[in-house]
Specification:
73% of the residues lie in helices and 0% in strands. The N and C termini lie far apart (59 Å). The chain contains three helices and no strands. The chain is mainly alpha-helical. It has one domain. The radius of gyration is 23 Å and the shape is elongated. The protein has helices at residues 9-22, 26-60, 67-78.
Length: 83
């Protein structure tokens, strides 16, 4: 599939320099970078959803702390004043 992407001059220069430094074709490098970014984004989204679901599960099972208690613990832990 042919895809044309317009890059700003700074990004284009960075991509070209990286490709030259690595001795790679710029198209190959761009494909590798986009593939890695999309995989990372998928992993981050899945991890966020899992964390939210765990929080909901904990709340539903009664496994949570009072907010004021949490604030007090954090103030004590980090030496913050009670303002």
């Amino acid at each position: 599939m042919l895809l044309t992407i317009t890059l700003d001059p700074i990004t284009e220069a960075q991509l070209l320099a990286k490709a030259e430094d690595q001795g790679q074709d710029i198209n190959t490098l761009a494909t590798q970078l986009l593939t890695a970014l999309l995989a990372w984004e998928t992993q981050e989204t899945e991890a966020a959803i899992a964390g939210i679901q765990q929080g909901l599960n904990d709340f539903e099972s009664g496994n949570f702390r009072n907010f004021d208690d949490f604030v007090g613990e954090q103030q004590e832990k980090h030496g913050l004043s009670d303002q």
